[in-house]
Amino acid sequence: MNDGLPASAPRILLAIETSCDETAIAVMDEKGHVPVHRIFSQIDQHRPFGGVVPEVASRCHVEALPPMLDEVIAAAGLDWSAIEGVAFTRGPGLATSLLTGMASARALAYRLQCPITGVNHLHGHAVSIRLTRNGGMKDIALPALILLVSGGHTMLLLEETPARYRLLGQTLDDAAGEALDKGAKLMGLGYPGGPEIEAHARTGDPAAFAFPRGLARNQEASHRYCFSFSGLKTSLMVLLKREPSLKESRLADLAASYQEAVVDALMLRVVDALDHLPIRTLACAGGVARNARLREKLSAAADHSGVALALTEPEFCADNAAMIAASARLLNTWADPVAADLDVLPGWGLGEDTGTPHH
To answer: How many CA atoms, within 13 angstroms, populate the side-chain half-sphere of residue 285?
Structure first.
């Protein structure tokens, strides 16, 4: 799908992702192949605090980026002179982390005398559904319904073109990944919570406890495709205050029931959209898209509705630079590193025009 790139488009590009607590770098060629991508996860650095600490995150990016850049170029078998464009995450994300990535990208682009582009992190996740393990980027039948679900974002998008998205709904409080992290903490499990809950849920009964599924079905039309997870967290907290021994005696059932409530809350909106909108592809992206129970239910929903299924490959679900490269390749909006008026946009949303900031 990328063979017809304009002559001005970089053939080999380098992408940098530093929006939160992963430092990631990738190389992509003109056909969308990603020969090398690396991710340094800061989980160990943030685990003692039970969540991401912005100052710790930015310092880790500063330390990790230089050696990772050299490693990626060497692993790709390239000389620095082969890089013809540099892409970086401009937002949304933690301001100090974004600034670290932008400063590195601008310095590289200036040194290499190549163009630069700032990418929307959410758009990166949205286009990650096109990334394949061994090939280039695949085509997706549009319109596509995309469930973008992670630790910081939960939204339902309608992709009309790779540069045009309609926001159908989003979380009104916690993101799904955040709800899993908080639930795991209440259960006495480790961080990050999603994988911990999923591991314990494998031997549990998902119907053991009746947790809420979020917004009522008779909600106002403007919230039809929106999500809410704060009541779920409160329900678990109240249950454990009343019966604290459940954390030991029925931990697997607790984890399975809590996970099922999160997944069901997501699927209720997905199925509603599939029933009422002209959709050709059902897709899911973001860190929580790795969850096996969610992937199972998405597959069943796609089969039932007779639409194609496009789930982001597990290795591209978490924050990564391959998705930033994919976004840069698809949008093809490059600028001179010196003349470009760039700044980070911590609150950048994903609007109909992904090149326009939406705060």
So the answer is: 27
SS3 state at 244: coil
Question: In terms of DSSP H, where are the helices of 76-175?
Answer: 95-112, 121-127
Confidence category of residue 216, pLDDT binned at 50, 70, 90: low
8 A C-beta contact, residue 333 and residue 117:
yes
Same fold, 13-133+317-331 and 144-312: yes
Q: Is 181 left (phi over 0), alpha (psi -120 to 50) or beta?
A: alpha
Residues 258-294 pLDDT 10s:
999 999 999 999 999 999 999 999 999 999 999 999 9
- Domain locations in the chain as residue ranges: 13-133+317-331, 144-312
Give the Cβ contact number of residue 99 at 10 Å: 17
pLDDT in tens, 166-191: 999 999 999 999 999 999 999 999 88
State the pLDDT at residue 354.
Answer: 52
**Burial annotation 71-86 (CB, 10 A radius, 16+ → b, else e):** ebbeebebeeeebbbb
Question: What residues have CB less than 8 Å from 341, skipping those under 6 apart?
Answer: none
Question: Cβ distance 201 to 255 under 8 Å?
Answer: yes
Kindly report the pTM of this predicted structure: 0.91
Name the CATH code of domain 144-312 (choices 3.20.20.80, 3.30.420.40, 3.40.640.10, 3.90.550.10).
3.30.420.40
Q: What is the CATH superfamily name and number for domain 13-133+317-331?
A: ATPase, nucleotide binding domain (3.30.420.40)
